[in-house]
Amino acid sequence: MTLQHDPEVDSVTTATRPCPHVTHELSNQPPPRVDVDELTTHVCLVEGVRRFDAEWALDLLGEVGRLVGSASFQHDAELANSQTPLGRAHRRGRVPPGLPPDHR
Question: How far is CA 94 from each of CA 38, 87, 91, 97, 103, rounded to the nearest angstrom?
Fold first, then answer.
């Protein structure tokens, strides 16, 4: 909230901005999954890797699992999913014959 002086009225008025309406607090949400090794917490995934003779990849998959479960990765994933996709035309440059100029 900011205070603005109105010289015509010679009084101080308040300029307010709309605030988001808070209705209640959510208490049934799971805690954030951060600092979790996403490979070792999924027993079926480790079992599948072993069953298909890919144990040679467990070290690399473990690194990826720790990266994906890190707080910074989860934050980046949340940011990526909060952005609205932008529609862009694939055509660039010259407009093909027969199309109006606004179809670029």
Answer: 49, 19, 8, 9, 10
